[in-house]
Queue: 2 jobs
Job 1
Amino acid sequence: MNGIDLTIIWAAIIAFAVVVYVIMDGFDLGIGILFPNFKVGPDRDTAMNSIAPVWDGNETWLVLGGGGLLAAFPLAYAIILPALYAPLIAMLLGLVLRGVAFEFRWRDPSHRARWDFAFTAGSVIATFAQGVTLGALLQGITVEGRAYAGGWWEWLTPFSILTGFALLAGYALLGCCWLIWKTEGALQRQCYSYAGRLGILLLLAIIAVSAATPFLEEEYYTRWLAYPGVLATAQIPLATLVVSVLYFRSLSKKQEAAPFFYALGLFGLSLIGLGVSMWPDVIPGRITIWEAAAPYESQLFMLIGAAIMVPVILAYTGWAYWVFRGKVGSDGYH
Amino acid sequence: MMDNELAINLARIQFAFTVSFHFLFPAFTIGIASYLAVLEGLWLKTDKGVYANLYRYWLKIFAIVFAMGVVSGIVMSYQFGTNWSVFSDKAGPIIGPLMAYEVLTAFFLEAGFLGVMLFGINKVGRKLHFVATLAVAIGTFISAFWILSVNSWMQTPVGYAINDVGQFVPAAGWWDIVWNPSFPYRLVHTVLAAYLTTAFAVGAVGAWHLLKDKTNPGARKMFSMAMWMAALVAPTQIFMGDLHGLNTLEHQPAKVMAMEGHYESHPDGAPLILFGIPNSAEKRVDYAIQIPKASSLILKHDMNAPLAGLDTIPDEDEPPVGIVFWAFRIMVGLGFAMLGIGLWSLLARARKKLYDWTWLHRAALVMGPSGFIAVLAGWVTTEVGRQPFTIYGLLRTSESAAPLDAPAVASSLLAFVVVYFIVFGAGIIYIFKLAAKTPEAHEPAPDDAPIRSAGITPAAAVLEGDQKEGAAS
């Protein structure tokens, strides 16, 4: 094949987009999940202000993930989206509710409570749906020929519900740690008090999902547990253990930025685990990345754009975060 | 299969519903983003407060419109897969990269700089803030460029081959695919439409405040700027629309036949049917009011040129004539009404009565929504006119849909309708509330600290709420 295998590069780019999405939109969805627990007034305003200037850019990575999948792996896009119809539509509607809440709550003080509720409901629905989507993908999709062949409830299993809850715990943890980093005073103390419990909850969720995964497909079992591969894959739970210890230690030392980055570390390790289970399939057990790939000309054309634009995007996104660095208050950044 | 047909029709309704809502917002954001860039540029250059005030005034409205455009746009980007998966599989290798370019070059640019534009004025300084505004405005253009390239390729597909699994794959260079035959016309026509939409929305807000107070400087400035746009862009748009029509006649003749209501061929000059009721069962236009030979004159620039009708194409390839015929007339009618307002404003300006002729202000107020209606009507004309195909002449809509059960599509459609009406209904109410406020009243100078959500601090928002209640009681 034309020298370099663009399909692998594109799989890496889409995986990168998903990872960046989870890292970046994760914490702002998490703030939506935790929102009802914050006191009405300055605390809620502060939490909202900490993400208002950046959430829009964060969410764009989701569009790149979806758009990239269509462009580089059209067959996978055409099978996965109908298969996960209900959770994806729920996710989209959740994102609609939540996205407008950022603007509407300021515009309409007399109905602010309603838009706060919409913000939380949208964040919870979108997060849960994303977790269900990951779980449903992992547990396998019925495919015949070049199309999805299951019913519209196939995604709904105890495992996908479990992954849905796991992601809720995970995003809530990210949101909590973000606020520890970006705020001070009562709100920060409140988040410190949540961070320990959310950490334990996420670890339990990771353990449950990890324990269930090898039994979903024989393939997963061998990938994870067959000797000698197990020597490599065992490093992932070990690293998870180390990062968890560091996370809880940083909390007890009342460090401000570190818990957020350790929490991201836990997410990164979970995503690596997902990669171990799936690679090199795009639809586990059914379709590999090469079977789903778009033609070389399509992949090459896009790669030129991605190679130029992704670094530029990262640069100005970084700049935007830099502009809004430091602690945030209820009346904006000072 | 009945169920299958029902599912496809529900998917069509869902697509039409979600895209109609969505399309209104970008049509408005393209225009307001440019308007804001002009206002901030003028403010930087002249340091006149009126520009800064208008910038702040429209920034708040822009923030709401933009948010609604973003969230409805995310829905669109996934809907190709959820409801039209066979289309996505087949066309993905060509339309996918174009849409990926839209994300890479436009969405990130808009989203990345939006935060600075809305919240960053006292963090980055005036000049850098202007750069952020420009970046957002340019982003809206780039976005229009790619999405119209995709749409145009589906209307006038070129540069493709079909591979052994039935996918459309790039065969010629990408330059040919991006610059497919109808793209330049469609791009210019749509961007001008976005400008007109904004001009008439801004003009109506200005007119409303002029009717209340002729001396308000903000109202005068926005009305004057909007009327300049109307006077300059409306005639340009009519000219472009004509060129676009000729291009469509060349590449999608059936669409033009439906627009014109030509069921039958006219060997020696076709009449222009002004009004009438298309009757697809009988293949004629009932109660037609027509000008002899005028259709040939417009489309071929020759009164006696022959013009083919729908009788020359197979029944199963015929677009729904009634919808296309009427949508086209609504669009053209509004276009000429816009031209009328533009000329009227020139006359008023020449007589130095731009701010005094209340009938002009009333007319401009009535014409406020005209751009949105014309945009939707134009969209219906072009999209329904290409039916029954998704990729013109090559892939039928009925062969593009996802293998879904009708109840799944029906319940998602219902969910979309409910959520959209609540969310976008509320958004439109907020836009009206913002537009009803007199321009200069509470616009703090942009260097006032601290600045929150599009220029309103939480404290100021509460205060504002109080004042509104106070004013109402």
Note: The longest strand of chain A covers residues 281-283.
Job 2
Amino acid sequence: MKKMFLLFFISSMVFTAALFATGAQDGAAGASDKVTITIESWRNDDLAIWEDILIPAFNKHYPDITVVFSPTPPAEYNSSLNAKLEGGTAGDLITARPFDASLILFQQGNLATLNDLDGIDNFSSVAKSAWITDDGSDVFAVPMASVIHGFIYNADIFSELGLTEPETEAEFFDILEKVKADGRYVPLAIGTSDLWDVATMGFQNIGPNYWKGETGRNNLISGKEKYTDDQYVAVWETLAKWAPYMSKGFEAQSYPDSQNLFTLGKAAIYPAGSWEIGVFNEQADFNMGAFPAPVRNKGDELYISDHTDIALGMNSTTENPEACKTFLTWMTTKEFAELYSNALPGFFSLGDFKLTLDDALASEIIGWRQIAKTTIRNSYQILGRGEPNLESELWVNTAKVINGTMTPEEAAKTVQDGLDRWYKP
Amino acid sequence: MIDGINHNPSFNTAGRKVGFFTSDKTRGYSGMSKAPPNSQYKQKQKFRTYILVFLAPACLVYTMFMIYPLLSSLGLSFFTADKAGNESFTGFANFIKLMTDDLWAPRFWGALWNNVKFFIVHSLVQNPVGLLLASLLVNQSLKGRTTFRTILFLPTTLSVVIVGFAWQLILSPLWGVAETGMALFGLEKYFLPWLGLEKYALTTLSLVSVWQFIGIPMMLFYTGLLGIPHELVEAATVDGASGWTVFWRIKFILILPIVGIVSVLTFVGNFNAFDLVYTTQGVLAGPDYSTDLLGNLFYRTFFGHQLQLGNPTMGATVATMMFLIILAFVLLYTYVWQRRVTSYEY
């Protein structure tokens, strides 16, 4: 028995030693000629685009840098990223959410300063505004893209029922009424189960026409306007009017349900973000068109939400800062902007380049930048900081308004009270 | 059973009411020492060092991965962190905030109350139905017992994510089969988007969870019922007891210790539940937090969501409260129920 044990002991020691030896060799071989950098992202839909288009294009210039795109599901991204950063296991490049989520990462020392990055000046100050310190002194991510809100519609249903794109809200509800009267299609493909879609594609989509885009957003920050003001309550009042045109049982309709409802051709209008274009092109076999959120009265100025959405920053503890900077600099070029905007129609590059987009729907939507004033979501910059979180409050209470369990006035009061708790303009 | 010695049953078989809730004095042997009163055994023995060697790996691993993290998270709940992440000691401030602050208190008490409801549904549906199924399955004359047993146990082996997703689809107002199924019985007008309504969402999810986990109490009761000697049942039948009487006066009383264990398992499972709500209702446990359980509150607090950053110290406070609640129930079980209920050997 003793002998057996000894034998086992020795053999296991030899085995372990052998393992260590091969491991060390691998490490030495890896360090000498190739560098691997990893990108953290919530865009798991984009895995193929990064692996097949973007990374190979980059490797044509820099064959020695291996880039690994390693996404996490969107809902888990922020939490898993924070945990990874805390544990020191996060990737070299970090896809950055706009504004405070990333600003706090920078303040905690997790993101490196990119002020001296070559090519960072290819972006306007508006583009950089979401990834810059409050005083504007430090940029900590390379802006990648914005998303634009509006409505995507099933053009086949529109022509079948003889409908045209609405310009005013009255025309919009008129269309909804006609589709409902026809009875074959769901007028509006959106549900309240996942909460965020009604806040993002509802409230922040039609809202800018009510609060006059940047004017209202800045007035909220400076305290000149409040969510209890008429123009904000009116947004919720309009959203409450959506409910009769939504599918039966919309209370349990999730975001993917809404997407499927539309791409299966069962719904006429989809309150959208431009990020849907890629998925819809792939799945819908009918013609699609898009129109921006209709204005309240004919002749009113048009405002759209053109939300700075995604950027790439550098982990401050990366072991390969040079390789990361090489990659980030490449991302500031027109080559990347064009590849990215075309590979991901609906994610519009923020670089100051004149881009040609192949996708019809995407170029139609990016065209709105010429006819409308743009703004970003009003719950993000500065106001997205405290507790209770304004963005979450908008999710929960907007869903309640549409579900009919809360009046627009109550929603406005709840949201403003939550903001007053911590925010003193 | 408990002391592992093969005694004879201490009750006669004539259907006398057996010792349910007997006092400590009449519990008899179950507290008795294992060793016979033989002085030889009391001789001093050399300490066996190898016992330590064998115990060490388990102790080390358990300490490292269970005891240390638990204590460290308990400790964390007494700290607070500023924006830069520097922690400072705050005593019970986090607990007071969690239970009284007008922002935190509705979430905490709401989640606790939801958890209680979740547990009540399990206690009232899962465990009685599990017992019923088990007593049907021990019936020798039932054909295909093994098949039923396997089918009924199957959902327990599935991932909660799959169960959540499957039920979300079944109950979906857009593509679900629930409405079609109800239409077969002319009940379609009673169909509602249950998972989306504040009034029904929690009960619906509780029942989904019951559907999934019913196999566990069923199996525990089943093994308990199988272990009851035939002579007892036969004797009672000969004495003229009906099936109903035999079940309640003999079988049920003999499996009372299992009823206790099942309750504890249900309680611990329910108060740690998180994944079902997370998969079907998302991080904010909608609609309007109506399905928020303590586990979900913990996750949301600790890891954050969307623009809300995580708050590890408050998260640890929620976790500590969960630990204390579960601990309280388990202690209640150990000191009140387990002491008063008698285990019999046969």
Note: The longest strand of chain A covers residues 142-154.
